[in-house]
Write a structure and sequence with these properties.
Layout: H1 3-6, H2 10-14, H3 20-30, H4 34-53, H5 62-69, H6 100-112, H7 119-144, E1 149-154, E2 160-166, E3 171-177, E4 186-194, E5 197-204, E6 212-214, E7 224-231, E8 244-247
Antiparallel strand pairs: 1-2, 2-3, 3-6, 4-5, 4-7, 7-8
Helix pairs in contact: 4-7, 5-6
Pfam families: RskA_C, zf-HC2
Keywords: Cell membrane, Membrane, Transcription, Transcription regulation, Transmembrane, Transmembrane helix
Domain Anti-sigma K factor RskA C-terminal: 102-242
């Protein structure tokens, strides 16, 4: 199998739809091709998110039809210095580049009992994946900064809050444990303390309220932070007494 053909197998590999021989060849190729490795990571995350988000019982004949049709479908190679024009392989029909990802996801639907209803769902899931990756990268950058400093304090109701601040990165990360789930119509909101003036730093909207949050906006001259319980959507200024206050540690 040529290198050009290997570049087209990312979607099928991400969904475990390759024959053993092609799978082994592609895995060797992945070690030397970062573009394909990145595309496999994105497609795998996309398929997993779609499987959780969109569920429906697949028609009995869908699995057989999809497995038959994917032998004639190949996606275009990644556009990293390679031609994006489709070429036919011996014994295979021409590729359908526009529908390649949709066809691969249909394999996942057939095997797992999940049917993908709209192409837009693919775009939304991939965007969500990229946003999550950017968030994780920014959090890691703060936590790994040489000047990162940590402060921890008890909060109302037995919860505990921890903040990590990096002045060089100019960002802060907040983590909470033991926060009770807010009532309907309420949300936890974070604040920077700019010399006694509270500046919104985003909402704690993780499903279980026990998570790591990259605080919105730069730290700048803030000397500390607080957390309050606000109406859904947040408030421009705190409307309730703080559940917790923490001063930022000195650099």
């Amino acid at each position: 199998m040529s290198t050009a053909e290997l570049h087209t197998l990312t979607g099928a590999y991400a969904l475990h739809a390759l024959p053993e021989g092609e799978q082994l060849a592609f895995e060797r190729h992945l070690g030397a091709c970062e573009a394909c490795a990145q595309e496999v990571r994105e497609l795998s995350a996309t398929a997993a998110r779609l499987g959780l988000a969109v569920s429906a019982t697949a028609p009995p004949a869908l699995r057989e039809r999809v497995l038959r049709e994917i032998t004639t479908v190949r996606q275009e190679p990644p556009p990293h210095g390679r031609s994006t024009r489709a070429t036919a392989s011996p014994g295979r029909a021409g590729r359908w580049p526009v529908y390649a990802l949709a066809a691969c996801l249909a394999v996942s639907a057939a095997l797992g009992g999940v049917a993908v209803q709209q192409y837009q769902a693919v775009q939304d899931a991939r965007q969500e994946t990229r946003q999550a990756q950017r968030h994780d990268a920014q959090v890691s950058r703060v936590l790994a900064a040489p000047d990162a400093r940590t402060a921890t304090a008890a909060m109302e109701g037995g919860a505990q809050g921890t903040v990590v601040v990096s002045r060089s990165v100019n960002r802060a990360v907040f983590a909470a444990s033991g926060l009770r789930r807010p009532s309907d119509g309420q949300v936890y909101q974070l604040w920077f303390d700019d010399g006694g003036t509270m500046r919104s730093a985003g909402l704690v909207d993780t499903p279980d309220t026990d998570g790591t949050v990259l605080m919105d906006g730069p730290v700048d001259r803030a000397s500390g932070m607080g957390i309050t319980l606000e109406p859904a959507g947040g408030s421009p200024r705190p409307t309730t007494p703080p559940l917790g206050l923490m001063g930022f540690p000195a650099a």
